[in-house]
Amino acid sequence: MLLWQYLITFLLVTVQICKAEKCDEFTDLNLGHSIIGTSLKVRLLLYTRSHGTCGTLVSHTDLSAYPQFNLLNPTTFIIHGYRLTGSPPPWLGDLTQLLLVRKDMNVIVVDWNYGAANLNYLEAVKNTREVASNVTAFIQMLQEQGADLSSIHLIGVSLGAHISGFTGANLKGEIGRISALDPAGPEFKGRNPEDRLDSSDAQFVDVVHTDMDLLGFREPLGHIDYYANGGADQPGCPKTIFSGQSYFKCDHQRSVYLFLDSINATCTSRTYPCSSYKDFLDGKCLTCSQFGDAGCPIFGYDVIKWKDILLEQNQTKAYFKTNGKSPYCMTNYRMDVMIWNKDVQWGYLTVKLHGNGKEAQATINHKSLKFKKFTETELLAAFDKDIQSVEKVSVKFSTGNVLQPKRKLRILQIRLENLEPKENKAQGSLCRYDVLLEENKEVTFRPIPCEESNF
């Protein structure tokens, strides 16, 4: 049965439970509360597989009234961030339910909307320490009753990422994992490690950056720091302030939706350790020999499988590209091109893969590429879909210069290699030679396996 079928069954069961009993819900405030200002109040809402959409407000000091809380199961805390308008986070229900579908666990939603909803962002920042103290006390109670700190996972969004860090530091870094989704930058940039999230706050800390140039944090904070699309502007998000509040929050919130996709596991985003996003786009970081047969680490929930080797690496910065909407994951290929033009050529490539009635496209336009006679140009080609069995390939060359005569790119050889680990590939490397590309004209050809070519 597919994951979505499990999810539907899970929801139907929990809806029936909700009808039979009272459910506690996340605090719903409005902009009026933010204007007036709110005083901190922390509520802990418990969700389990038997109560998947029906929250239970739990005591901070006594678990005896909640038989559904299983201390032998892992416990995941979801900690939200600043709430300017006071409304509940739109992603909260999906995150809770997908976690429960993936694993039998206790999910605790840390509702600190009273304290996070305030026009004065600085007041919300001041409250983060107290929220962390509250969560710390609850975890200490769980530990006293037999829970293993290694089974605790904190998922913190924005300010919630730093709350997770403070909580972990209070517990001497003994909790199992912190996943930080675009940690807040304002008021935390330039702070010492004890005043923000850092890698010593848990046994394993994974961080994703999606808005480092505005609301997020630029520098690495964990054992692995992912920079989606370079860590700043996200595809599909508004590019101008005329789009209203979406312009300010879309990039920041994308971190959560990327993480949701990784839990849903409809596809995976392979990431590549690199010194910079530019080098990644230039195809300079497409090998991951240091990770052995496992290959480059994937983004998100399942990166825990790479924990041991990432801890040995100490700190890893990894990059990946995404689509503008879900499913966000892309399929990465290494593309090698060799030309036999007499003169150096500059330009951009658009590549399409065709197979089983589907089409995937990769646009390589981050810079004008240099093609030199009998010199292999290595590129990263990130395709918007995964074509399991490639039947045809289309390539288009352009210079972007409408004032000069049309150019021709005389390709001696072209090679496409799927960068997924070998066991996940439907095909090996694909090759073609002797292809003439006239500027702005798409050429389609059938590739052949490279071992059958003349290379």
TrEMBL record:
The active site is at S158, D182, H252. CDD domains: Pancreat_lipase_like (cd00707). It is found in: Cell membrane; Secreted. One of its GO terms (molecular function) is phospholipase activity. GO terms for biological process: lipid catabolic process; phosphatidic acid biosynthetic process. It is a peripheral membrane protein. Keywords: Calcium, Cell membrane, Disulfide bond, Glycoprotein, Hydrolase, Lipid degradation, Lipid metabolism, Membrane, Metal-binding, Secreted, Signal. Residues 1-20 form the signal peptide. It holds the Pfam family Lipase. Ca(2+) binds at R196, D198, D201. One of its GO terms (cellular component) is extracellular space. The keyword Mitochondrion does not apply. It catalyses: 1-hexadecanoyl-2-(9Z-octadecenoyl)-sn-glycero-3-phosphate + H2O = 2-(9Z-octadecenoyl)-sn-glycero-3-phosphate + hexadecanoate + H(+). Residues 38-328 form the Lipase domain. Belongs to the AB hydrolase superfamily. Lipase family. Hydrolyzes specifically phosphatidic acid (PA) to produce 2-acyl lysophosphatidic acid (LPA; a potent bioactive lipid mediator) and fatty acid. Does not hydrolyze other phospholipids, like phosphatidylserine (PS), phosphatidylcholine (PC) and phosphatidylethanolamine (PE) or triacylglycerol (TG). This is Lipase domain-containing protein. It comes from Oreochromis aureus.
